[in-house]
Structures are given as structure tokens and as C-alpha cells.
Amino acid sequence: MNILHVEETPNPAALKFIMDGPVIASGSLSISSGEDDEEYTGDNEMARALFKVGAVELFLCQNYVSVTVFSPKAWEHFMGDVKSAIEEHLLSPGEKQPEKEKKDSFVNTIDRDAFPSLPDNEKAQIIESLMDEIIRPALANDGGGLEVLRVEGNNVTIKYQGACGSCPSATGGTLAAIERALKGYCDPNLEVLIGNTQ
User: Fold this and answer.
1) Residue 168 CB coordination number (10 Å)
2) What is the C-alpha to C-alpha distance for residues 112 and 182, in angstroms, rounded to an integer?
3) How is residue 106 annotated by DSSP?
């Protein structure tokens, strides 16, 4: 698989490497360098190779690999090594994914009146689907993503992935936009918090 081009992200320490094909069968994959043992990387040779040349986080989604290094200045020294590691270790999938059928928007099915009284696990399912439809695609355009860690009452705790993880706007404008969307579609009393996996 080859790199078609490299795009900047809002996070100066992260770059988005656009590939000539899908890099993951479905969904997304986020791996942090603190998790570079086999439990997290498994047989992911690319992750191990990138962590050796200064990457601190990887985010694979659709047709790109987002790589965050320890400092924006590190790109001057490691760009060639990062490109080589991606092209050498990222294998082309055997088949292209079939095109998905168009379906009605999930957001049109949310019952705002019933949402506040739902159990937390049902709220979490609705929020996950909403994130998949409107939030994650927007973050993916900037080389990142997010994970919903938990939903407890009116509190939704998230963790950013990829370029979003250390982006300066992640705790400001981006967080406010996510909260605005959840309040508008689900419940005006929801609050979005940034948490960790602990």
C-alpha cells in the first residue's frame, strides 16, 4: 500500500497519511505508545515500527493513518522513517469493502422526550449511534476520533483518539461542538467530560 499524500491536522504534532486503499476492514483502531506491548499491538508490525521512530499515538480509520509524534519539531527528523514504516508494514486488504446502502438518518429516530428517563445503557447506545453518524466522521477528517467511556445520568465521558488526543482545540471548541450536538439531539441537560480509561 502506498501513501498518496500527507495532510496537516489541527494538532501540529499529528499528520494524516492518506493511503491508496482502505487501511482497516471496518471501524477504527487507536493505539498509544504506552500500550505497545503485544496485548495492544498484537501482530501489528506497523505500530511497533512507528513507536520505535518517535510516534506516540496511531489512529487508523477508512483510508488513512494518523500519526502523532512527541513534538511537532520531530517531523523534521522522522518523516522519512514514518513514511517507510507505514508503507512497509501496512498491507493492502484482499478485497475492497462493499458500498453501504443509503439508509435513513439515525438522528431522526431519537425521541428527545423519552431520552432523559432511559437507563444509562440505552442512553449510551443512542449516543454511540449519534457519534457514529455525525461526530466521528468530522473528527476523522482531522485525523482523529473519540471513544465514549461511559454514560452516567447526564454525564457523557469521552476519550479522544488520534490527532484529537493532544489537539489544542480538543478541550475547547471541539468539546463544545460535541456537547452542543448531544444537547440538541438528545437532552439539553447532557454534559460532556473528558476522561481517561482508568
Assistant:
1) 11
2) 10
3) G
- Residue-by-residue pLDDT tens, the chain, 198 positions: 899 999 998 888 899 999 988 888 888 888 887 644 444 555 678 888 888 777 888 888 889 999 988 778 878 878 888 898 898 887 654 434 344 444 566 777 888 899 999 999 999 999 998 888 878 887 887 788 889 999 999 999 999 888 887 777 777 778 888 888 888 889 999 999 998 754
Assigned CATH class of 3-89: alpha beta
Q: In the chain, what are the domain boundaries?
A: 3-89, 106-194
The CATH number given to 106-194 is: 3.30.300.130
Three cell numbers written together for 165: 488526543
Phi, psi of 129 (to 5 degrees): -65, -40
Distance between CA atoms of residues 103 and 152, nearest Å: 30
